Amino acid sequence: MAPLARLKKRAEFLHVAAKGRRCTTPGLILQALPQASAHEPRVGFTASRRVGIAVARNRARRRLREAARRAAPHARPGDYVLIAREATLKRPFAELVADLETALKRLGAWREGAAE
CB of 68 within 8 A of CB of 104? Predict the structure, then answer.
C-alpha cells in the first residue's frame, strides 16, 4: 500500500482548523475539510503535551498514523487532521480505528464500498 499523503506545514493545519468541521470521539479528535478537487485524502497528525512526554506523544501519533492508513481507502478526498487525546494511548487499537471510522461517518467523509 502506498504511504499516506501528508499535511506537514502549519498553514495547512490552520486552514483545516479554520474552514473544516470537527468531530470528537473518545480516542481522537478529527478535523475534516473535504474537497472535491483533491485526488486523495491528505492527513496530518498532532499531539499536544497534554498527551504526555515526547515518547508518549510519538507513540500516539504512530497509533493515529496506522489507524488513518487503515481508514484511508474509505475517506473522501480532502484534508484531515487527527489530534491525539490522552485516551489515544490507552484505548484498544480496534476501538481507536472504530473511533476514526465513526468520526468520518459523522462528518460525511466516509465512502461506502470503497476498495481496500
Answer: no
Residue found under cell 508518549: 56
Q: From 82, 5, 8, 71, select the one nearest 38 (Cα to Cα).
A: 5
Q: Which CATH architecture has domain 23-106?
A: 2-Layer Sandwich (3.30)
More confident residue, 23 or 1: 23
Are 44 and 7 contacting, i.e. CB atoms less than 8 angstroms apart?
yes
Boundaries of every domain in the chain: 23-106
Contact call for residues 30 and 20 (beta carbons, < 8 A):
no
Tens digit of pLDDT for each residue in 12-28?
A: 999 999 999 999 999 99
Burial-class residue 33 by CB neighbours within 10 Å (0-12, 13-18, 19+). Answer: buried
